[in-house]
Structures are given as C-alpha cells and as structure tokens.
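Weekly structure sync, notes
Attendees: PL, DS, HV (note-taker this week)

Item 1: Ring finger protein 123
DS walked through the input record. Source organism listed as Phyllostomus discolor. Sequence as pasted into the shared doc:
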Amino acid sequence: MASKGAGMSFSRKNYRLTSDAEKSRATGIVHEKLLNDYLHRVFSSPDQAPTAATSRKPLNFQNLPEHLDQLLQVDSEDEESQGQAEGRLGPSTVVLDHTSGFEGLLLVDDDLLGVIGHSNFGTIRSTTCVYKGKWVYEVLISSQGLMQIGWCTINCRFNQEEGVGDTHNSYAYDGNRVRKWNVTTTNYGKAWAAGDIVSCLIDLDDGTLSFCLNGVSLGTAFENFSRGPGMAYFPAISLSFKESVAFNFGSRPLRYPVAGYRPLQDPPRADLARAQRLLGCFRAVLSVELDPVEGRLVEKESSEWQLQGQPTVLLTLAHIFHHFAPLLRKVYLVEAVFTNFLLGVMEAGTTAQAQAVVRQVLDLLWLFMEDYEVHDCLKQLMMSLLRLYRFSPIVPDLSLQVRYLQLTIAILKHEKSRKFLLSNVLFDVLRSAVFFHIKSPLRVEEAGLQELIPTTWWPHRSGREGKDSKEAKDETAEERLRRRAYERGCQRLKKRIEVVEELQVQVLKLLLNNKDDNGGEASRYIFLTKFRKFLQENANSRGNIPLLCPPEYMVCFLHRLISALRCYWDEYKAANPHASYSDEAYVPPQVFYNGKVDYFDQQRLGGLLSHLRKTLKDDLASKANILIDPLELQAATMDDLDEDEEPSPAAAQRPVQALAIGGALPLPRPGWLSSPTLGRANRFLSTAAVSLMTPRRPLSTAEKVKVRTLSAEQRTREDSS
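Item 1 (cont.): predicted structure, written out as tokens:
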C-alpha cells in the first residue's frame, strides 16, 4: 500500500522554516524589548520627565492594566469637584425648574435646558442660585424675538406682563429691543439674531453684572445691585409667545468661556482628565508604527496611519478603549474631547487622508465598544456637530460652517455609522434640516460683508413698474464702476455660499447612497422612509408640534435635495445616452389642480393650489383642456382666509376642549428650535393649570380622578390665538 503522498517530490523550499524577521512581518509579533519601548511610548505619563530606558519598569501586556490604572489616577480635588461649591446653592446638575420656578405657559425640552414660550410673557428660572463669587452661563438664541435674559431672586414675582428685569432685584438684557431692564430701561448692547450665543456674567464680589454676545463683551450693564445675607440670584428668562432658547449652564463646554468666571455647573474634571490622557495614548498609537523587521519604532504623521491588523497594535487599542468607551457616552466629554480630536484630524493632511483616518477611527469604535456605547457616542457626536454648525458666527469665508460640514461628510462616509444615524438619529432625535440652512448675518460688519461688497449700486431713476428707465449707455463712468464693483462683490459672495451648498449636497448624496457594501437595507431606502414620514408630519401637522420645520429650513433642505437628485439623474444620463438631461425635467402644472396627486390629504401646497385656481384658472383650463366648476373654485378659495381673522360663529361653537395639564394645547406651531438638537419637548408647564390642580379643600375619591379642562369659551385670547 502506497503511503499518502507517494510519488510526490517536495523541494527543500517547500519545507523551509520561516526566519524570525519574516515571522514578525507576517504575524506582527514583536520581541520583548520592542514591545516595552512601544508601550512606554504609547502610555507615557505627561507629568513624568523622560527617563533612560534602563531605569524604566519593563512593560508588557500582563502588567499594562496596572500601569494604565496608575496613569489614569486623578487628584482627589478633581474627584470631589462635583460636590457643593462655595457661593452656589442647589443641585450640582443645573437645569430649568419645571416644578415651581416658572410663570405662564411654557414648553420645556426633555433635557430641561430648552424652553419655548406659549403665553404672552412666560418666565422660568434655574434650579440653582449663586450668592458669592463670579459665575457665567450661556443662552443659545433660537429665535430673535422679544425676550429678557438675566438674573432674579427667589422673591421676584412675575406675571404675564412683567418678567425678568421688570421687578426689583431682577436684571435682564433684551437684544430684540437692544435695551437693559431693571424696573426702568435704557439702551444697551447690540441686537441679537437667531444662532447667537449670549453669555450672562454676574460678579457678586464687586457687585457688577454684564453680558457678552458671541464672546464679545457688551460692557457692564448693572452695578451695586443688592447683595448680602438672604440674597441669591437665579438665572432666569422671560420670553413671549413662540420664542425659544436653550441654556448651557455647564453641562457642555462653554463656547465662550470668560477668564475668572466659572459655569454654574462644574465640568466633570476627573473624567475630563482621564479622557484627555486616553486620547493622548490613542494619538500616540496613530503617530508611531512598529517595524518588527528592523526592531524599532517609526514616527509618522497621524494622517497617514492605517490599521493593518497587527496583534500588538490591536491589543494596545483594546486596553485603551476598555477605559475610553464609558467616557465616550457622556455629552461633555464627546464635545470637549472626541469632537475636537476629529476636527483636528480633518485639518491635518488632505481631505482624502482625513476621511480615511475618520473612517478607521469609527471602525475601531465599532470593534472595541459595545453597540449601545457606540450608539450613544455617535448620537452625542452628531448633536455636538449640529450645535456647532448652527451657533457658529458668520465669518466672510464661512470657514466654520465648511469645517463642520466636512467632518459630517467624513462620518457619513462610514456605512455602518451612516445607517445607524439614519435609522435612529438624523430624523428621530436631531433636527438635521439645520445642516442644510445657511444663517443670514444680522450684523453686516461682523460678517465681513463690507469688505466683501465694498460699495452698493442701484439705478437712480426707475419707471413706474420698477423697471430701469436708464439704458446702460446712459450710465456715467462713476455709476459703471460702482455697478461693476457691486457685481464682483456679489459674485465673490455667491462663490463662497456655493462651497457650503456643495458640501450640503454631498451630505444628501451620502444619505441617498444605493450601493452599500455590507447588505441590509440601503441608505437610500432608510432615508426615503424617514423623509416621507418627515413630509407627512410637516404637511399635515399630525406630528409632534415642536418638530414642524420652519419654511426657511424646509426650502433650503428641499433645494439641496433637488440638487442631489439632479446629480444622480446626470449620472444615469451618462450611462444611458438616450435618457433626458436633468435640466429638461419639470413638474407639469396640472398636478397641482387636477386632483390626481394625493399630497398627504393636504389641500394647499404653499398656496399654489388656491393661487392657480383663482388667478390662472382660464389659462390652465385652456392648456389642459378642462373645465373648472365655479362652485369648486369657491370652495377651494376658502383656505385662503387669513389665520389672524376672527373665526366664524359656527367655528367658535365647535366642541373643542384642551387639557389644562398633562398634554400640549392645540396651539400654533411653536419655535422649532428651542433645543438646538433634541427633537422632542414633552414637558408642558402652565401656572394656570397648576392653580387648577391645587385644590383649596380635600378632594373626595370621585373628584380626584376627574380631569380638569378648559372649554373654548373659558380660554384666554392668547391661548386661542
């Protein structure tokens, strides 16, 4: 019987043993000295001076956990900093007081940091007050209407006419009317706009109170205010109907910290120190490479780093993320550490290199962290980016907006992260339409428009219909120069805006990707499912009221979406020469009036339906060869009634009732952006409801289960506006 393999000849080359150098190259295994050097390079303490290699304690994967625990030890002062601080009274986590510290009708976000006004002049204060020291908090302005922001004492009594700054011991800044308030009012500061950040500073040692707008001091507003025993000041705001803001007492890094002033809520100093040290270790992994063949460490740029699957590197990263993962779930640390790290990556190297590093970082997150940890991290990361994008000042080249959009694109290029964000975050938690809006500057000089467009131009004489009565040949030389300079400035501005618009279109093209590699539902399918629901909620007002998108955001969103659609259309045209170009596409006018398209039961489409039927009915009818019934036309025009007109008697007698507490009233759309990111606001506050639900005598068992309601006749004018 022939043995197995008989008749086969094997050369010596087939059985040659692998040399140590080749074994290291193939498996990534490194010898003890190189491993020790590598671990000391990655996990070096920032406080220790460099020592000779002979005096260092040898490091390996067996004693690395002990070394890492020592590296992450922080001072006891940092550990105890989250306790009660001198000069401050109240919970260490500062939020809006939704139990007793409010007046009027208000809607407060789930995080208790965003608020929307629902009455004439509602007021709310925080849960924490200060009586000594220097303190600061920030207010993110989501709408630029009537609001008074500042400080008050617990003894201040407010109503629907008097808010913060209208009583003794309350002080406020009003950027809508550009005034300061303390019983009397005088001019102060600058006008604010949606997207601005107001810093409120109080110095209880010197007795001064001041404000900053986007980090620029507006000067001292008040001096020598009341202090002493029994005097403590709460952050507070009064805001009119539909106005909205979001507070930052210190739960997130302050955008504009002020030297010498501390936020009302202390930062998590101990966790912040640990996160920064772990990030330093992670940066070291990205900037050093093992060369097992030569037995040495190779320094390189982090933008050139690639994950090659070396066991030594993977084990090192596993030890880092074992401690890093729980920290990356926290709001403050994601914004202060992780977001800033990724923004730094985007600024190093080329765009392609930066996107490659971000993709590999996200790969590591999904590899070494639990799914729920990655989900929380990505959610907080996108919330941070959205907040940074919306509340960044407008600079001449829009560089800040470009920076945040570029990182958003790099994150969305990672397929697994993109699908999770589409399925769970972008439409469900975030108001992602903000990414497609470009904020208009209110203050021309701060936006650099005077340098961009140094001169203005318009015809001196115009006809009765607004048409120029002067021909171009009648222009003087000076007018011609002014016109050309104006047109050049407009073109420069247009080009800068087009850069941002192009990035916004790239975001949508990623969300519309139909060629995902890893199977499952395509990104395009998930996006269209969410987008259809988004349209239904906004078209019919059947969704959560605070989620309704303002027209200016919706127009920008749809414009970018159409641009992305045209890109895909033109790609199809390139592959199919017989297809039409996207420029040839149009919407037939008859779809707006022939009744064949169901716009989610919506009778109006931005006023087009009634406008077409009233003003263009004859032309449309002749073009489409149809007849429009005059009675149908009369019925269709009923939806053009002004919303501010008094309702008819029949409408007033409808059996409409509103729950006084426990649910949102059927009010007009409130400010859509109270919290810059959160998509739900379910705490409905009403002092009237509280008074109704506070009985003057003990209730019987039967009475306790009754729900107090307000009939339509009992509601105030503000409630039913």
